[in-house]
Each structure stands twice: as C-alpha cells, then as structure tokens.
Amino acid sequence: MKKQLLALLFAIVPVTAMAAGGASVPHSMEPDLQDQASLQNGMKLYVNYCMGCHSLEHQRFARAADDLGIPQDLVEENLIFSSDLAFNDQMHIAMDRGDAESWFGAPPPDLTLEARLRGTDWIYSYLLGFYKDPSRPTGVNNTVFDLVAMPNVLEPLQGVQELVCAETDQPVAGQSPDPLSGKYQSCDVLQVTQPGAMEPAEFEEAVYDLTNFLAYVGEPSKLQAQALAPKVLIFIFIFGVIAYLLKREYWRDVH
What we know:
Order of helices and strands: HHEHHEHHHEEHEEHH
Strand content: 5-15%
Structural class: alpha+beta
GO molecular function, one term: electron transfer activity
CATH superfamily: Cytochrome c-like domain
Cofactor: heme c
Helix content: 40-55%
Largest sheet: 2 strands, antiparallel
Number of domains: 1
Shape: extended
InterPro entries: Cyt_c-like_dom_sf, Cyt_c1
Main location: membrane
CATH topology: Cytochrome Bc1 Complex, Chain D, domain 2
CATH class: Mainly Alpha
Number of helices: 10
Number of strands: 6
Subcellular location: Membrane
Radius of gyration: 25 Å
Distance between the termini: 37 Å
CATH architecture: Orthogonal Bundle
C-alpha cells in the first residue's frame, strides 16, 4: 500500500511542477479541440509559416486531414509543398539537419510534443511576445524566451512590435513613483508600431488557432476520446440499469 501511495505521489509532482512553471507567462488560452475551423486554420498557418524549419515527425498529413475534416485533394494541393512528401507521409521538413546545425548552431526542434512539454499558455504567449531588438542577430527578441534565436516568422501578419513605456500603478523595481501622479513608468509594454496584414485582435485569434493546432498534434487521440466519451457513459448507465434489474431478479427468491 505504501509503495502505491509513493508511486501516486511521484506521478502527481511533475504535473504540479508544470502547472507552477506556466504561471510566469503573460497570456493564457484554453484549447478547444471541438472547434474544427480553428484547427483547420491552425494547420494552414503552421504549414505556411512554421514548417519551413519545424517538423511534426509524429503526425501524418492523412491523420490530421481525417481528424480535422479536410479533404485529401485540398491537403495535397494546398498543404504539401514538397514533391518528396505524399498524403500518408509524416509531416517532415525538407531542411537537412546537418545544414540546419551549420546555419543556426542547432537544428530547429520538432514541435509534435511542444504543447505537452511547455503548455499551450507558454506557446501562445511566446508567439505574441516577439518585439523589435536591433541588438539581436535576427532583429527581434521575445518577452517569454529572452535572447531567442528564432526570427519572428509571423511578423508579416502581426507587423513590427516594440517595447514602449507607459504609466502604471504597479511598483517597478528600482524606480520611485512620479511625485505628482504617483505612477510608475513601465517600459515593457508591447505595442505594434508598424501594422501587418492583420489587426491585433485578428492576429491574436490566428495565434490562438496555431496554438490550438499544436495542442491537437500533441495528443491526436484526445479528439476521438472526447467523441467516444458520451457513448461510453450512456453504455455504462444502460448496463448499470440492466445489472441492477438482473440483481433484483436473482435475489428475489433469497429474500
């Protein structure tokens, strides 16, 4: 019994640690795997803006198309850009790992399990957290991942975002409040200074869709489980009623 309790404790500790680790991210999002339109748009964004560098090696085009309700011909025409890939193939990238290591110092990671590793709040905040920083090799930095090496691939959609100063009631370390207004100057506010193809609210929705898709990719079977769960509960209820009536019939003569 003690061994079982210890095993349960060790199983719970990592979950608690992950939940605590996600508390520092500035934004939160709740994945909705039932929103098919969101998942479809997320897959489109991923293939067009992320899959040049980041593979999804544990996911197949065919599986995603089946789960998300995308016809095979649309996937082959609009989401498979390499002649080396077919509909039933895994979502590999064309970039050679050796070349990627020589270009970037390390090959870009596969993102199949990224949502399970870091959490959707982290991914959502990370994609919204890029800002202009001329001191960096790529010209950008990130509020969630400082000194990030990845460029802001979504900049054409979002536009150029910069850190600006704004008044706040919250105390700022090493700073005294203004004697007249009693407010502090916070210079970590993100603001789009050069608009992109999308309005800020529209871009946030696009980032939500992209993060939602990564949540699906991390556990594709969850969609099937959610669809099956009501049927299982109905079966258990009906079976329970039948089992109860059968029990009453068997024990009628005993009592």
